[in-house]
Design brief:
- By secondary structure, the protein is an alpha/beta fold.
- The protein folds into 3 domains: 3-128, Rossmann fold; 137-194 and 245-321, Serine Threonine Protein Phosphatase 5, Tetratricopeptide repeat (Alpha Horseshoe); 340-508, DNA Cyclobutane Dipyrimidine Photolyase, subunit A, domain 3 (Orthogonal Bundle), CATH 1.10.579.
- The chain has helices at residues 18-22, 36-40, 46-65, 84-94, 108-115, 117-121, 137-144, 152-163, 203-215, 231-244, 246-249, 269-274, 279-291, 297-321, 340-343, 349-361, 366-380, 384-394, 400-411, 428-434, 455-466, 468-471, 478-485, 489-504, and strands at 3-7, 29-33, 69-73, 97-103, 124-128, 167-168, 171-172.
- The protein has a 5-stranded parallel sheet with strand order 3-2-1-4-5, sandwiched between helices. Strands 6-7 form a two-stranded antiparallel sheet.
- The relative contact order is 0.10.
Length: 509
């Protein structure tokens, strides 16, 4: 009688683990691999690759200490084992395998691979639900049903009621479901900013860093790698956030500043997305901090909304709408992504600061992603697929299920408004209000036309004018079109001319 083989992917590194729960360590085997295809299907950040490989090696070590037989393929640039199918095929040749057991993956392309293994290798394939999420895919589908519009806010309320987080009986704590209006303060140097907990690489991580540095062509900086790579480290990072930053997270979660890459953000998203933390334990810690008086309600609610609201919502959208969702281009954008998205070599200080921090950290917080790099790509009219590939590449927390809906839907409004009721478009005025970026810029944020005018401004008004038929009926955008109507014909021509000049000269801005 053959064995059962349990595949553990690099974003499924949690205990308890559905695959391990389904197998017997005395008779079955676990399979893991550092696969070259996974490092190059987009140009990943070096720190992202190092994080995943190190966390995988630590998981495998812990599994062996717990009595598991683990077949582990270390990265080898010369190996013919490049894909998940290659890895599984090799294991099937080495062992008498009856059944492959795997947890539902995080990317459609991997699911397609898995679905072909039964006929390709002549074995049974068992696909288990991913236990890392509060909302099962079947529950999301039941909720979505025949709704004309899927809105996160209503889904989020359902998740609050289901989990009981920040609930007083049947009512939301504090009387409101959402305190986002209280989370838009500008940071001006006080209170002192926090930083995520930093972890010194151990021997396993050092070995991974050497491998990535020597053998993998990657984006960004590898030096200074300090991410948590084990469950224990991730839990310490969570406790550090609660202790050092949670009290001010809500007030300043939308703020940006040149003096701090982090302000009061947690950097826990990568730990969540590879399984070192679960959404339940994170939300429990945040709610406990609020009930203990260590975190104000607006901060706790804003954090929990991102975890059991947006995170769960976009996963449901992804699996409901794929594979066609990835090719949507509702605004017909066709421009190429500017080269400075990779280099940071631009005179626009907000983009330069955000891209520089991304190159160093494999991280930027949600407003930098949405209202700086994302906003500019939207206004410029970049092809959505190129923008999605960039976001998937440069952030340590980016996996297709979470990155694609956030980028294609929320950033690029390419899904026809499925994810967001209006485009997240803004002029330089928004960035000036929420940051100090404009003070160090060669362009004038208060100017719309002329050679020294902030490129965001003309692009923004041109975006509104080009897409007027589509967006003017939206009640949330009527005020902006009243501003357009107050422009003279000459002013509109000047704006369109400046926008055209920005697009023509994009690589020299």
């Amino acid at each position: 009688m053959g064995i059962r083989l349990g595949l553990i992917c690099g974003d499924q590194l949690h205990w308890p683990n559905p695959v391990c729960d389904a197998l017997d360590p005395e008779s079955d085997r676990l399979l893991m691999g550092e696969l070259s295809h996974e490092t190059r299907y987009v140009w990943h950040h070096a720190k992202k690759i190092a994080l995943i490989f190190s966390a995988m090696r630590h998981f495998a070590e812990n599994a062996r200490e717990s009595g598991w037989n683990v077949d582990y393929q270390r990265f080898d640039p010369a190996s013919e084992i490049a894909t998940f199918s290659d890895l599984v095929g090799q294991a099937c040749r080495q062992h008498d395998v009856d059944e492959i057991v795997v947890t539902w993956p995080g990317e459609w392309r991997v699911l397609e691979e898995i679905q072909g293994w039964g006929s390709r290798f002549g074995v049974d394939v068992t696909l288990l639900p991913d236990s890392r999420f509060v909302c099962a895919l079947e529950e999301f589908e039941e909720w979505a049903g025949e709704r004309r519009q899927l809105r996160m806010e209503f889904f989020y309320r359902r998740m609050r009621k289901k989990t009981g987080f920040l609930m007083d009986g049947d009512a939301p704590a504090g009387g409101d479901w959402n305190f986002d209006r209280d989370n838009r303060k500008v940071w001006k140097g006080e209170p002192p900013p926090s930083s995520p907990m930093s972890f010194t690489p151990d021997a396993i991580t050092e070995s991974v860093i050497e491998t990535v540095d020597r053998h993998i062509d990657a984006f960004g900086e590898l030096e200074g790698f300090d991410y948590p790579v084990t469950i224990e480290q991730a839990r310490r990072a969570l406790a550090h956030f609660i202790r050092s930053a949670a009290a001010h997270f809500g007030d300043y979660q939308d703020a940006m500043h040149t003096e701090s890459d982090w302000l009061f953000h947690s950097r826990l998203s990568s730990s969540l997305n590879i399984g070192l933390l679960t959404p339940t334990e994170v939300c429990e810690a945040v709610e406990r901090a609020w009930r203990d008086g260590d975190m104000p309600l607006n901060a706790a609610e804003g954090f929990i909304r991102q975890v059991i609201g947006w995170r769960e919502f976009v996963r449901g959208i992804y699996w409901r709408e794929m594979p066609g969702y990835a090719k949507r281009n509702g605004l017909g954008n066709e421009r190429d992504l500017p080269a400075f998205y990779w280099s940071g070599d631009t005179g626009m200080n907000c983009l330069r600061e955000t891209i520089d921090a991304t190159r160093r950290n494999a991280y930027a917080h949600h407003i930098q992603r949405l209202m700086v790099t994302g906003n500019f790509a939207l206004l410029l009219g970049v092809e959505p697929e190129q923008v999605c590939d960039w976001y998937l590449a440069v952030y340590a927390d980016a996996f297709d299920w979470v990155e694609l809906p956030n980028t294609l839907g929320m950033v690029m409004h390419a899904d026809g408004g499925m994810l967001g009721s209006k485009p997240y478009a803004a002029s330089g005025k928004y960035i000036d209000r929420m940051s100090n970026y404009c003070a160090g810029c060669r362009y004038e944020v208060k100017e719309t036309t002329g050679e020294d005018a902030c490129p965001f401004n003309a692009l923004y008004w041109d975006f509104l004018m080009r897409h007027r038929e589509r967006f003017e009926p939206n009640p949330r955008m009527k005020m902006m079109y009243r501003h357009v109507d107050r422009m003279s014909d000459e002013r509109r021509r000047d704006v369109a001319q400046r926008a055209s000049e920005v697009k023509r000269r994009i690589e020299s801005l």
